[in-house]
Amino acid sequence: MLDGIKRINEFEWEIEKGFVPEMRVPGKFYLSETLSETLEEGAVRQLANVATMPGIVRYSLAMPDVHWGYGFPIGGVAAFNMEEGVISPGGVGFDINCGVRLLALPITKDDFSGIKGIINQLFDTVPTGVGNKSALRLSEKELEDVMTEGAGWAVNNGYGTKDDIIRCEDGGCIDGADTEHVSRKARQRGMPQCGTLGSGNHFLEIQSVDEIFDDGAAEKFGLVRDQICIMIHCGSRGLGHQVCTDHLKDLEAASKKYNIKLPDNQLACAPLKSPEGKAYLSAMAASANYAWANRQIITHLVREVICKKPGIEYDDIKLIYDVTHNVAKFEEHIVDGKKQTLCVHRKGATRAFGPGSPGLPPELDSTGQPVLIPGSMGTPSYVLKGTEKAMECTFGSTCHGSGRIMSRSQAKKSSDGSDIKEELAGKGIYVRATSNKVIAEESPQAYKSSSEVVRTVHNAGLSLKVAKLTPMGVIKG
Predict the structure, then answer these.
(1) Is 400 labeled as catalytic in the residue annotation?
(2) Which position among 233, 300, 345, 400 bears the catalytic label?
(3) What is the mean pLDDT of the chain?
């Protein structure tokens, strides 16, 4: 391990103040011994850099899927107080509200056949790939409504059920969206893309529930062994990316205006109460709401395909939960024995609110929220539940996925994708992608072990295992 890092226990490591100059708080990350071999020095330095930012509270944190990102490491969590604290696009990421949702079908794998045909139908129905456009063309007024109402807009316009809203983090909508701060270019990118999967690591995957770890929580969530599920992973498409790009320029200037000393320009930020900070927060909320509507419309498209199978009705396909990975939100947490309102940045991290936390659906109040952790095409995904320990130690946060260990260019050099497709087919996993190059970029070998990442957060108590899901068919953008 690097100098300046202290091991606290089997899964916790602390970056001592002084690792980089002017750290206001220590850094802390969660890793098993096995995962420590994948730790990037650059990601550790980024975590320490975040600890220098004004108003940061308690720790700069990273989850076991941590890896190098833009400014903040991916897998990073940082909370800022309202007096001195700042908002930073680098702590949210370019794909604002990139997130994941899980649908459960009323059928088990023994009664589910024709996976190749279903994946092909879904591939033809859900627009996939770089720049692909939706059959739904939003008018300017509809886009305004999407950015302020989120998933609720989609449901109110026939793309889902009322129950879907209950099973979304924050009801699928963040308050405070002000579309005046969303540029013309961002709107033009967003209007034709609502209801599209996108590219990169975004995916749609048919899975089966192969193991239940917590019978009570699984029952509350709506999961049973051998059940067929569909996981959807995507975000705010070109609109969110453009919002981040636009506001980064303003916040770089704001950092100088407010005399904020930063070790890395990619940490550009502004005080939470400044005009520049408020403008970014309102545009970020608009982008997050767009992303929830995007996932909701894809859900509708999936239901229309699946309910063509005999015995499955549209309303029988239930949303287990929808979580966001890339966002900054105002939340109340206990700090030094006192409840405080904080701006919690989660970048490649998942909210993991424990039992009794505010905002949970009444039926999940005793279990904590569902936490969805995707695998990497050929590896298992997991459903976990939030914990009180996460509330105490990580501002109610846990990991978001496996975490890359190989860049996309490195992954493409190691394979042309056809061999990976063939290997997965041998394991009974059918993959459909826009090209073999995409399959190579997202090779399972390009990621850490999802099972080891989940084992780490489970044993650290940041979220607890409920169910394991195995991939059967995958669509890659």
Answers:
(1) yes
(2) 400
(3) 96
